[in-house]
Every structure is written in C-alpha cells, then in structure tokens.
UniProtKB/TrEMBL annotation:
Residue ranges of the TM segments: 45-70, 114-132
Family: Belongs to the DP1 family.
Biological source species: Dermatophagoides pteronyssinus (European house dust mite)
InterPro entries for the chain: TB2_DP1_HVA22
Membrane topology (UniProt): Multi-pass membrane protein
Protein name: Receptor expression-enhancing protein
Pfam family, one: TB2_DP1_HVA22
Length: 176
C-alpha cells in the first residue's frame, strides 16, 4: 500500500511541476508568495477536501463529479485513440461504476447515515480509475462481476430477450 501511495505522490508531483502548464504557473506563484512547497500545498488541499467530504454540503455532488467527469473525459479520449487497451480499461470502469450505482440505489438510505460515506465512495471511485495495472475496477470486475456474469449469462440473456419482446409488443399494440 505504501508503494502505491508513493507512486501516486510522485505522479502528483510530476503533474504539479509540468513546465508550461497553468497548474505549474499557479503553483509556482503560490509557492513564491507563501514560501510553502507545492507538495505541502497539494497535501493541505487534499486534507481539506477529505474533511469537506465528511462534513460539507454538496459532498454527494462532488463525489459524483469525481466519479464521472474525469472518467468521461478520458473515455472519450480512449474512444478517439487507435489503442483498444484503453477502451477496455475504461469500459471496465463503467461496468463497475454501473454495478456500484445499482447497489448504491438500494442501499443509499443506509449508507448515507455514515459520516465517511462520501469520502469512502470518492476514494473507491478514484481507486477504480487509477492508472495502475490492477486498479479497483479490474479487481471488482474479475472478483465479483465477471464470475457472476459467466455463471448467469444464459439467464440474463433470456430475461433481456423477454424484456425486448415485451417492449416491442407494447409499442406495436400502442401504434395499432
């Protein structure tokens, strides 16, 4: 776990120090005016956001932005690239995201009473899309979703076919 944390901190430091970017320009300006190193500033902002996710308003909205905006952006980039590995990675993320959303729909009433829920959800979603070889979406998909799907594939197909047929029948009877 410490290895993953160190890797993430190294990537954050690279991101904050990329020459020619607005982030680097702003971080340089803040660093010069406060005398505080940019990594300490970034860690402070991260701690503030974590505390806000526990006690602040709009934690659910922020959580949904974290789980949706960046993944949607890089998914579009993946679709536009010629590489199919990134398509698979982000498709796996969206399958896990949808699976988690369905579970959350039925258990949201229970989970929302826990003060660390939105923080835990943000951490989970970020873990699911971290650029690691075996990130959270790979783990959840291979351990839970894939085995369930393979075991119940024919039953799921039959239900889907029946629902499509009933929908077509309902539409055709309405048009008559």
């Amino acid at each position: 776990m410490a290895e993953i944390f160190d890797k993430i901190m190294t990537e954050i430091e690279k991101f904050l120090s990329q020459p020619g970017t607005k982030v680097n320009t702003y971080m340089e300006m803040i660093e010069k005016s406060t005398g505080i190193k940019r990594m300490y500033i970034a860690k402070g902002v991260l701690v503030f956001l974590m505390i806000y996710m526990i006690f602040g308003y709009f934690a659910q909205l922020i959580c949904n932005f974290v789980g949706f905006l960046y993944p949607a952006y890089v998914s579009i980039k993946a679709l536009e690239s010629r590489n199919k590995d990134d398509d698979t990675r982000w498709l796996t993320y969206w399958v896990v995201f949808a699976f988690f959303s369905v579970i959350e729909f039925f258990s949201d009433f229970i989970f929302s009473w826990f003060p660390f829920y939105w923080l835990a959800k943000v951490v989970f979603l970020v873990w699911c899309y971290l650029p690691l070889e075996r990130n959270g979406s790979d783990y959840v998909y291979t351990k839970f979703i894939r085995p369930f799907f393979l075991q119940n594939n024919s039953g799921i197909d039959n239900i889907a076919k029946r629902l499509v047929k009933e929908a077509k029948d309902a539409i055709s009877s309405k048009n008559e």
